[in-house]
Design goal:
alpha/beta; Nucleotidyltransferase, domain 5; 2 domains; six-stranded mixed sheet; 15 helices; about 20% strand; globular
Length: about 400
């Protein structure tokens, strides 16, 4: 079975085509600048030169049609016809309390995704455009949706409720939802398989550290607590997001600087984090480079970033009454040896025996960066959210047949 995985943004669309017989990627790519005359489609097939096409793509339906044309192209494609696509899986950021697992799309599912627009106004409407674009181009192909929030629906009320009047939860569903759930789910299973231990026996702290970042306490295979909240703004310091802060700062900033709510929201989401503290970049690589060249603001940003990760790891170890595995994943977590070292140096109280040589090794495979016999295993686990989406889509479609 061939499954097309799509992640639609407001002006972009990423795709990967999987052959589920071998779980191999046949092709992948992205469409950027949707809505503009100079939209860019980049198409990649392993062993071939990348294809880059610039054209006018004004909406998502055309973007999906362009992708399908590329997948079936006589020279660049990997399929004989679009009929070789048996299913499509979509990443959806917010499933609210309505979706505790992945589901096949029907009219009721689409209606509920629309009802959740208020909780994810930047993401869910774009995902819906992706769903509708596939319907227009592949009307008879089943589609599935995989929610970033679904994995965290196992959290107890002690973890997901905020200490504010309950009317906000009853009427408006204000609560912790958590994100990156697809990634945390995938890497926790990979970690258990790597260690040869049942997931149900493990206490895992998963650190998804990219431009957006979150930590999740995974108790016996289920999300117990997670750092992101009702929105992805809460929790760790990130590339351009502030993470945790005193909520009274918001009205204070509005009054002192005569800002609007939208301006404050933009400041906290797009102009804070590494970007604000370093004054250089939201990219950890550039911050580390500046730090190693002696820039003190970059050093401060790096130290704050690492400290907050370490603080969350400590709190989650306490929440689960112990930890067996700490894992790092996503762009920064997988590739920044200096960050992993700085975080792990402050966790020796857990019995963690860090191995600098293992930490410096680069690999695309899951690996340990602690010495044999360490009381806590620290792993680097490459994430693959698209594969998990493909697997869930395959399971749902096969189960329906």
């Amino acid at each position: 079975m061939n499954i097309l995985v799509i992640n639609a943004g407001s002006s972009s669309l990423k795709y990967q085509l999987y052959d589920m017989t071998t779980e191999s990627v046949l092709a992948k790519g992205r469409v950027e600048r949707i809505g503009m005359e100079s939209s860019i489609l980049t198409h990649e097939v392993e062993g071939r030169a990348d294809v880059r096409e610039v054209s006018e793509i004004l909406e998502h339906t055309t973007a999906v049609r362009k992708v399908l044309d590329m997948l079936t192209h006589r020279s660049f494609g990997v399929l004989e016809s679009i009929g070789d696509i048996q299913a499509v899986g979509h990443r959806i950021v917010h499933g609210g309390e309505s979706f505790k697992e992945s589901v096949l799309i029907d009219a009721d599912v689409k209606l509920e995704i629309r009802n959740l627009f208020d909780l994810a106004p930047l993401h869910n409407p774009a995902h819906m455009m992706g769903i509708q674009a596939v319907e227009a181009n592949l009307p008879d192909v089943p589609q599935a949706v995989v929610f970033d929030t679904a994995f965290h629906q196992t959290m107890p009320a002690t973890s997901y409720l905020y200490a504010i009047p309950k009317v906000f939860y009853r009427k408006h569903k204000v609560r912790r939802y958590g994100f990156h759930g697809t990634s945390h789910d995938y890497v926790s299973k990979q970690a258990a398989a790597f260690l040869g231990r049942p997931l149900e026996e493990l206490k895992i702290i998963s650190c998804h550290i990219g431009n957006g970042a979150s930590c999740t306490a995974i108790l016996h295979g289920k999300s117990y607590d997670t750092s992101m909240g009702m929105t992805p703004l809460e929790g760790l310091m990130m590339g351009s997001r502030s993470g945790d802060l005193d909520p009274a700062i918001v009205p204070f900033a509005i009054n002192k600087e005569d800002l609007t709510l939208n301006e404050v929201n933009s400041m906290l989401n797009k102009h804070s984090g590494l970007m604000a503290v370093s004054g250089i970049s939201s990219d950890m690589r550039e911050v580390v480079e500046a730090m190693e060249s002696g820039d003190e603001n970059a050093r401060l940003a790096f130290e704050m970033y690492a400290y907050r990760i370490r603080k969350y790891i400590g709190s989650y170890a306490a929440a689960m009454n112990g930890v067996d595995v700490i894992l790092f994943t996503a762009g920064v977590g997988e590739n920044s040896a200096v960050l992993r070292k700085r975080v792990c140096e402050g966790l020796t109280f857990l019995g963690l025996d860090f191995d600098e040589e293992r930490n410096e090794l680069r690999s695309s495979e899951t690996r340990s960066i602690t010495r044999d016999g360490s009381a806590v295993n620290v792993l680097v686990v490459p994430t693959n959210e698209e594969l998990l989406i493909a697997r869930d889509t395959y399971r749902l479609v096969i189960g329906k047949e």
